[in-house]
Amino acid sequence: MNKVLVIVLLLFISNKLFSQIIIQGQIKDQNNKSIEFAEILIKNKDSLFIKSELTNAKGRFLIKLEKGEFLLIVKDSGIIAYQKNINVIENLDLGVLVMNKNDQQLKEVIITSKKKIIERKNDRLVFNVENSITSIGGDAMDALRVTPGLKIQNDQIMMIGKSGMSVMIDDKIIHLYGEDLISFLKTIKSDNIKSIEVITAPPAKYDVEGNSGIVNIKLKKAKKNSWGGDFNSSYTKAKFDLGSIGSVLNYQKNKITINYTINYTNGSTAPYQENYVYYPKVTWFETNHKRSYQNNLSNRFNFDYQLTKKTTIGMQYTASKNKPLDVSLSNSKITDEITHQLDSLIVTPSYVNSKKTTHTINFYSLTKLDSIGRQLFFDTDYFEFNLNSDNNFSSNYYYGDGSEIPNRNLKANNITDQKIKIYSSKIDLDLPLQWVKVSFGAKVSFIKTDNNVAYYNFYSSEPILDLTRSNLFNYSENTQALYISAQKSLAKKWDLQLGLRAENTQTKGVSATVEQLNTNTYIRLFPTLYLTYTANENSTFSFNYNRRIDRPSYADLNPFRLYSTAFNYMEGNPFLQPYFTNNIEISHSYKDLYSSLSYKNLTNGIDYITVVSADSGIQIAKPYNFYTQNSIVLSENYTFSKWKGYENNIGFNLLYAVTSPKTNTIVPEISNWTASFSSYNSFVLNKKKSIRASLDFVYSSPSVLGSYKLESYYFFDAGMRMSLFEKKVRIAISMVDIFRTNKLRYSQVVNNIKITALDYSNPQSLRFSLSYYFGKSFKKDEKTNTSNEDEKSRVK
Asked: Is residue 593 over pLDDT 50?
């Protein structure tokens, strides 16, 4: 592979040996003063930048080109001040070029040039938030909610047709997950967001882990020489109370940019679950009432320093400390199928006390080799996750009449200790050449997990270790990756991008308790292809293909048993293999309408099968590689913004999926049509645009998720935001799931035994929030030139 890359690089370099034709000239301003450090850029007929130079102290420049037609562009302070078409046949002296920087003309261009709300680029969809009224008085979660191709449900961000997603801010991965990520995104004002990029098929430079996409939030350029931030708080009222408080601090002066975010959450929620298991002779009906306490502190620190005009270095540190406590009461009623009389009852109170901590530290450097796009990026990362969980539970058995069944009660303690460490480094090189833009790079990652599960029985006052239910499990995974990508404009309206990524992976799993060793080594190739046709200013067609890999989560590989009751436990599977997904997508964007048709083929898929015993009543949930899935998705997204003060983002999706298990499994084949509809309505209620209301509606028909069938659901959310005191104070109120209809109902058939369940983990709630913004600009220092992950997703 390395030899191939060297040969390819040499071929590209050979194309850069131009014939010695010299283009020279001198740059002056309207006052006949020579301009030093003006940028001279050369574009070829494919609109690719191929050359760049800076003028000297006398404003002179000299560029060597081959024969052809080119566009010469002169920039001063990042502003195009002069451009000229040139036909290069022989040495050419352009003489004195006078720059014309008319500020009034520039202002007029800015005023009259307005981007479309939705744009299609070669490998991504761009939602221009700054042109949407969504940007008024909201936060990043509000903007993501109305972004085409995304779905926000129960404060979870999902990409339609994808199993996972990564979030970036200005092209840098955010190392926060779950509630920590949501809390952080709510601190970003939508007013500060320029655009949101939805990358459904990530290019070869990104990790191929998971059939997932990437959301890249592009912020507006920070105000130079300024500091500011906000204090924010929220209160959520449901069955129980939940509150949070946080702050964001931003600092930018000269070459230094600092950002710090901190958030603390405390309170509790009341998730509810129930399920039926229909055995041949009896039916088990189980309800689980839970109170989940949250005590979570998270923070993120980001530091950037402009080392030189062309090099920026930086570091990012994120950390979280969470102490969740789950107190639950499970009731299992066993009813005779013939008499319909209550046969027996099992009551299981449990108390799960946990501590979770995460630490991530990241260092990076970005060097711009020239002004036409050549750049070198280096990134190294360390991630650490620690989990300590103490689960105390007891099962008490009763006859149908309520009397206790003797010698059947059980009391136990399940203790889990998990540590995960991930080291990774990568390097990327962007190399635009005369006829093609090339990118290539490499990445290495080293993963190590240690798991210790101890199970104690309380037959007496002293706990007794049960070795048959305890386990020590260690797992390591090393991956080396190389990639190359090439992008070229085939004609004025066609763009092509090709990529190939190769990954070599070695895994090792050791279970000390059962004396089991599992190793695996594999090399896989992951191609990507993008083809875009721009018919006109309003209409763009695109086609893309990519191949992805999903590796098992670390918890799924661990063969220990995690008990929730005496009759229910989850068990890992050390023999799991990765599964692969091939994706094809055709899309069309026309003004503010975006349409796509995609096909997905998933092989060797992983999902949990709940094996139930008709004799003992024990339910065992265990992951297996057992199915293939084929699905087709038609998506339509339209942003209606023709009425002043009103915007409606409408989405419609139609999906057909067939899940086919292997012949030796006990799960039947299932297929299903699914239709979903969403409507996000935004209203500006006054002339100052300081009061905004929203009303959201989401509906989904019955669907299929792996081997599970999901029933239909719908819900309404509503909210109102108000900005006061020149936007320094913002007040918001929102109602989640107004009619208590956002409940997950699903079923699974295993070995001819049907299981149905209901999950209402994010119940109806009313949320209040208050934010105060502050900041100021520094006095200008005229003497100083100023200028402005995927392995972790498998942690469960």
From this structure: yes
